[in-house]
């Protein structure tokens, strides 16, 4: 019997056994969680909407929340930023021409924090091509093409994020000038057996192709790139006749990459580019003034984009657990009363938690996405915040951004065929021996319960997801 089915059988026995039914619910939940891999440390609070706790296991201990951190970031966006359901008039990228008396003007592509700027073929909204069209309509020759991300300090990676994630899409660089999710998409196409596969990608990175097309076996591709390097190594095998594989590599200098792509779009429109591709960054100076961004606000831009409402991006952040977008949202929260730094963003989150009545010792954040291993939350504090959110005017809109059990997002494959399918709305988390889930669920009685469950120190190659899900099913069935 596999561990999944064994755990399910334990849960069923705990519910059905007359002897077990006499035990308090808390004890049965604890017994079920003991089925998890040895050494796993659990924290759990399940409460009614009025705050009465039904189950509490290590409620005030602090746990690494992984991507459940996005609960705090996205709630802060609703609580602090202007109406998220209207057009995003403050975050769109812009383009300026900087005159040069001796040469053609420089083109400055300016980012203002939006995460959704796109250069994809067929783009219809928030498109880099629209800015390229504006330049081409004004001039046929330019000098340098400059990516300017000085809207936020140059903090491309958060404290506590594992360096090995930098080369991947999950840890790509964070920048006020973000394009195509700051990912380089590489399409790997099999060829004849024994030959290297064909690679299709923008040539921003130089790729050393050591992969092989295999006649048999399985597709198993790997890429390696050191932080700061524009050389990527592709290795492994792709099966002959297999579907092309799409790999996504992180971008270390998003502003430079955006300017590089912008140069290509300008050239496609017949604009002659005489100069170089450059990037402008703002060093993170903790004691510097908030106006230290250096952005040129003295002249109107040649063109500016208005992205879709931020509320739509919150849905993507929570449903897909999109790290980069969450990090940019934290910086935008931090730019309301500060300089858009990580420190200002986490301070704004802390101020929201104070308003929600969450004790200061219940949390610590070093980022907005949950990639940082420094983040900590107490399950009771998470439940306190979730109850506070439910009472806010924007609470229903925020809750609708959460994945739905067995239906969509990161919960699409969980709770299928159970009583909680379509009745549990929660943010997932998974990172470095950590599993988390927090949100709302509709119990058998029809009432809504608020919950936060965390598993830390999960042994290598193990998972506590099944035990976590079974515990919630048991609690929901008896309330």
Structure write-up:
This protein is an alpha/beta fold. The chain has three domains: 3-83 and 311-477, Beta-lactamase (3-Layer(aba) Sandwich); 94-156 and 253-308, D-tyrosyl-trna(Tyr) Deacylase, Chain: A, CATH 3.50.80.20; 163-250, no CATH class. 27% of the residues lie in helices and 21% in strands. The protein has helices at residues 3-16, 18-21, 25-33, 70-80, 128-138, 254-268, 310-320, 323-334, 342-355, 379-390, 395-399, 465-477; strands spanning 41-48, 53-57, 94-98, 106-110, 141-142, 145-148, 183-189, 198-200, 206-209, 212-214, 220-224, 231-239, 245-250, 272-273, 277-280, 303-304, 363-364, 376-377, 424-430, 435-442, 448-456. Helix 4 (70-80) packs antiparallel against helix 7 and helix 4 packs across helix 9 (342-355).
Helix and strand arrangement:
Blueprint: H1 3-16, H2 18-21, H3 25-33, E1 41-48, E2 53-57, H4 70-80, E3 94-98, E4 106-110, H5 128-138, E5 141-142, E6 145-148, E7 183-189, E8 198-200, E9 206-209, E10 212-214, E11 220-224, E12 231-239, E13 245-250, H6 254-268, E14 272-273, E15 277-280, E16 303-304, H7 310-320, H8 323-334, H9 342-355, E17 363-364, E18 376-377, H10 379-390, H11 395-399, E19 424-430, E20 435-442, E21 448-456, H12 465-477
Parallel strand pairs: 4-6, 5-14, 6-15, 9-12, 10-12
Antiparallel strand pairs: 1-2, 1-21, 3-4, 3-16, 7-8, 7-13, 11-12, 17-18, 19-20, 20-21
Helix pairs in contact: 1-12, 3-12, 4-7, 4-8, 4-9, 8-9
